Structure formats: C-alpha cells, structure tokens
Amino acid sequence: MPKMKTKSGAKKRFRFTASGKVRANVARKRHGMSKRPQQMKRKSRGTFILADGDARLVKKYMPYG
C-alpha cells in the first residue's frame, strides 16, 4: 500500500498540539493593520485551537500529524 499524501497547503498552515488538537494562525493579519481596532490586533496575536468540526477536516488532510 503506498503512503498517503499530506496536503501541502495544510502542512504550511496548521500544527498539532501534544494532545492532538489542531493549532492555527488567526486570520486577517497580513496587511492593513493600521485601520484595524486595537482590541482586534490584541486578540489576534499568536495562534488558536480549531473547533472540533474544522479539526476533523484538517486531520484528514494531514494523516501523519
């Protein structure tokens, strides 16, 4: 049986925590940050844990995660 392939877009965007949850970057931070509210900039620092439904899809894209 050949190995399953990982989606290359998913491996660039998601990581797994030690307990198997999916960690992702917060969206809408690439450009135009000067017009964003300060509270939005604070809350979008770092990463966040995906919801279960979204994480299930990402785990299908990354079979060896």
Short description:
The protein contains 3 helices and 3 strands.
Explain how this protein is built:
This protein is of the alpha+beta class and 65 residues long. The chain has a single domain (8-61), classed as Irregular (Factor Xa Inhibitor). 34% of the residues lie in helices and 15% in strands. The protein contains three helices and three strands. A three-stranded antiparallel β-sheet has the order 1-2-3. A hairpin with a 5-residue loop joins strand 1 (14-16) and strand 2. The two termini are 19 Å apart. The mean pLDDT is 96.
Structural class: alpha+beta
In total, the number of strands is 3
Roughly how many Å apart are the termini?
19 Å
Most strands sheet: 3 strands, antiparallel
Beta-strand share of residues: 15-25%
Portion of residues in helices? 25-40%
Keywords:
about 35% helix; elongated; Factor Xa Inhibitor; about 60 residues; 3-stranded antiparallel beta sheet; 3 helices; alpha+beta
Topology:
Blueprint: H1 8-13, E1 14-16, E2 22-25, H2 38-43, E3 47-49, H3 52-61
Antiparallel strand pairs: 1-2, 2-3
